[in-house]
Design goal:
mainly beta, 4-stranded antiparallel beta sheet, globular
Length: 157
């Protein structure tokens, strides 16, 4: 028998999943792929989460290194992350760096997957598929900052 607290948790999880799914439908990417990204990093949180990572943007046949840092609401646990993504609406490398709003969701016990859709003020959209190793549950709204390797504080290699 489920207690009322468990019903509340289940209702919150289902509504969070529905919100992420609806937002993903509303944020459908354009048909033209402009670039790809690959990065590794980590995440940890207990309601409020912190994310970090380093990666490579491949754009017009060239590789550009970058760093990712951000906060999220709705993250519980800790995990390492390997991600691949598609980038849309990218007109120049300079438009890739900046602040992004992201919606994400996923679950990992030892190993699991998650997805995220990010968008910045230049209209650049990044669709990510992530493989996570650790223990983590997320139905989160995120603020993420991407900086290029030549920016102070970014130690991307």
């Amino acid at each position: 028998m489920l207690t009322s607290g468990r019903y509340l948790v289940m209702a919150m999880l289902l509504s969070g999943a529905a919100a992420v799914a609806c937002a993903a439908d509303d944020a459908s990417p354009p048909a033209t792929l402009d670039a790809t990204v690959k990065f590794t990093g980590g995440v940890m949180g207990a309601g409020v989460g912190y994310k970090w990572g380093r990666g490579t943007l491949t754009y017009q046949g060239q590789d550009f290194k970058f760093c990712v840092r951000g906060l999220s609401l709705g993250d519980v646990g800790a995990a390492s992350v390997d991600a691949l993504g598609s980038v849309y609406n990218l007109k120049s490398v300079q438009d890739f760096a900046g602040d992004y709003f992201a919606l994400s969701g996923g679950f990992a016990i030892a190993r699991g997957g998650s997805g995220a859709i990010l968008k910045n003020k230049h209209g650049v959209m990044v669709e990510l598929q992530m493989l996570e190793t650790g223990l983590r549950f997320s139905m989160a709204a995120n603020g993420v900052k991407i900086t290029m390797a030549d920016h102070p504080g970014c130690k991307a290699r």
